[in-house]
Amino acid sequence: FMSSLGSQRRISPVTLLLPKHVTSLGLPGSLAHINSVHTKSTCHPKSNIFFLKTHKTASSTILNILYRYGESRNLTFALPLNKHSQLFYPFFFASHFVEGVSSRSVREFHIMCNHMRFTKSEVAKVMPEDTFYFSILRHPVAMMESIFIYYKSIPAFHKTRSLDSFLDSSWRNYNSSVKNNHYAHNILAFDFGFDNNAAADTEDLEERASMAIAAIERDFHLILISEYFDESMILLKHALCWSLEDVVSFKLNSRSEQTRHPLLPNTAEKIKRWNALDWRIYLHFNTTFWHKVDSLVGQEQMKREVSQLRELQAKLANSCLKDGGAVDPSQIKDAGLKPFQYGAAVIQGYNLNPHIDRQTKIKCQRLITPELQYTDRLYTQQFPELAAKCMDPFFSVPISIPGSYNFT
Ligand SMILES: Nc1ncnc2c1ncn2[C@@H]1O[C@H](COP(=O)(O)OS(=O)(=O)O)[C@@H](OP(=O)(O)O)[C@H]1O
Question: Where does the record place a coiled coil (predicted)?
Fold first, then answer.
C-alpha cells in the first residue's frame, strides 16, 4: 500500500452532494478571493493566521514553520493557558483556553496553531476578522497506521495485537464513550469538530460527509494534503504571499523505520470502511487541492517551485545538521532538541552541526526545536511573569501529554 500511495498522485473524486453555494472549486463566494493569483508586486504577506493542527498529519512540521515566522517578526501567538501545549484538546475549543483572553492582557493575536477540537465561533472571538484559516489532511490509511502505533495505549488499542485484529473486532468492541478512544475512529472529523461515530454501513453517512465537507469549505480558506507536503507548502506560500524561505522546513515528529508497519491491501480497505467519514473528507479535499494548484500556481510553476524548495532544504540540512538527517532519540545529544516520545513509536529528531556561526545556529536551532520545547519558549517570551509562576512548585500545572488533558 505505501508504495502505491506514493504513485497515486490524484485520487479520483467521488460524487458527493454539495450544497448549491459551493462552487466547483470548492470555494464559497465569500472565500473566492484567495483564488486570485498573487504576484510579488500586488500581494501583502498575511500574518493573521489560524491553523487547525490535526493529528499525525505533519502538523508539527507546519507548527514549526508558523512558530519561526511569528517569532522572527514579533507576532503574538494565541497560546494555551498555563503553559499547556494544547488548547485543552479533546474538549471543544473555547476562547478562554487562550492565555491573555480572560485577563485581557493581550490586545491582538496573530497566530493560533496548537491542537484543539475546532469550534469556529469560539476561534473567531480570539482571532481578527481577516484571519486566514487553513489545515492539513492525511490519507486515512497511512494516518491510522501511524495513530495505532503512537496511541497504542488508548483503551481501544491497548489489548489488541495488531491493527488488523482491531479492525476485525472493532465493530463489536469499540466503545466511543471511553476517554481517548476518539483517536481510533475518524480522527480528522473529530478534530474538525464533527461527530466521528460513523462507518461505511452508517445509514446517513453520505449526508453527514457532505455536511462536514460543506462546513470545512465554509470555515477554511485552504486545506493541505500531507502526501503532497512540498506542493502544499508552495500552495501555502502563494496563499499567504510568503517567500520560499518562510515555508522551508525539516520533517518533524517522524517515526523511525523500526516502528512502522507496512499494511496489506486488505487492511487498507478495512481502514477506509472503518474511517468512512474521514475517507470521504480526504477524497474531496484531495480533489480541491489539485484544483487550487491549477488556479493559484499552475502545474509548471508548481514543479519549479517544489524543486527550488527541495534545493533550499538540502542546503539547510547540509549546514544545520550534524548527521545530515533525522536520528533516533537515543542519539540526540541536547535534551532541548529531543522530541516527546509516546506510545509504541520511536520519534526521531536532529543534532545540530557544531561548526556553525552564532547567527546560523539560531536559525538552525529553530528549525529543529520540537513542538513542546518551542511552545514553552514562546509562552515564556510572551508571558515572562506567568511563566515564572508556572515554574513555582506551589503553582502546580499538570504536564500535558497528547490527548490526556485532565481538568482535575
Ligand atoms: N514534511 C513532511 N512530509 C510528510 N510527512 C511528514 C512531514 N513532517 C512530518 N511528517 C509525518 O507526520 C506525522 C506526524 O504528524 P504530526 O506532527 O501531525 O503528529 S502529532 O499529532 O502532532 O503528534 C509523522 O508520520 P509517521 O512517521 O507516519 O508517524 C511524520 O513522519
Answer: none
Residue nearest to ligand 1 atom 15, measured at CA:
56
Residue 42 has a pLDDT of 81
- For residue 260, which atom of ligand 1 is closest to its CA? 28
The residue written with cell numbers 496553531 in the block is: 113
Pocket of ligand 1 (CB under 6 A): 55-61, 146, 226, 229, 251-255
If you compute the radius of gyration of the chain from its CA atoms, what whole number of angstroms results? Answer: 21
What's the CA gap between 361 and 352, in Å, rounded? Answer: 8
The closest residue, in CA terms, to atom 5 on ligand 1 is 58
**CA-nearest residue, atom 24 of ligand 1:** 254
ipTM at complex level: 0.99
Q: For a substitution probing ligand 1, which of 56, 227, 255, 400 has the most ligand atoms within 8 Å of its CB? A: 56
Alpha-carbon distance of 87 to 352, in angstroms, equals: 30
Q: Are 140 and 271 in contact (CB under 8 A)?
A: yes
- 158-177 pLDDT tens trace: 889 899 999 998 667 789 99
Cα gap 345→121, rounded to integer Å: 35
Residue 335 DSSP class: G
Q: Of 274-278, 322-326, 388-392, which range is least confident?
A: 388-392
Q: What share of the chain is helix, strand, coil (3-state, %, to 5)?
A: 50, 5, 45
Task: Report CA(380)–ligand 1 centroid distance (Å).
Answer: 26
Contact 395, 389 (CB under 8 A): yes
Cβ proximity of 143 and 54 under 8 Å: no
Strand 132-137 relative to strand 49-52, pairing: parallel
Ligand 1 midpoint to CA 272 (Å): 20
Query: Which ligand 1 atom sits nearest the alpha carbon of residue 145?
Result: 28
Gap between the Cα atoms of 273 and 194, Å rounded: 18
Q: What is the DSSP string of 94-125?
A: -GGGBTTTTT---S---EE-S--B--HHHHHH
Q: Which has more confidence, 174 or 87? A: 87
